Amino acid sequence: MRVLTAVTLLTMVLVPACKPMPSRSGGGTKKCSTSVAKPRITERDDGKTICMGRKAPLTVTLHGTKADPWKSVSVSGGVLKETQGPAVAGAVTTAVYQSDRSGSGTLSASRKAGHFQVTIVVRS
Predict the structure, then answer these.
(1) Which residues 6+ apart lie within 8 Å of 40 measured at CB?
(2) What mean pLDDT do residues 13-33 have?
(3) Cα–Cα distance between 17 and 92 in angstroms, integer?
(4) Model confidence over 90-122: pLDDT tens digits?
(5) Strand pairing partners for 66?
(6) Domain definitions of the chain by residue range
(7) Which of 34, 39, 80, 120 has the smallest count of CB within 10 Å of its CB?
């Protein structure tokens, strides 16, 4: 009986702790596609929600073509600060950011062949 009581109590404590964190920038919860300490984002992450901690680096590397490179890399939401601006070398566009404060924002880029967007959730 004591084991059953202990398991029940642990379940009541641990299960709620696993729920997604509510967004601080208005609107519901964000479920993480992945959660890493130092995200390295590529075009394969398009559409995902990436969770990370504060004061952590985030590198974006997008592979295009020489005729159609990724451009207009931008962030919104105020959770990321640019530390190395978007640079295009051949067909590869790279930018580096640092998470600045808790909340969520969007990182996006575009090219003729399409659009790229990820949601970034920064947790304390």
Answers:
(1) 58, 59, 61
(2) 49
(3) 40
(4) 899 999 999 999 999 999 999 999 999 999 999
(5) none
(6) 22-123
(7) 34
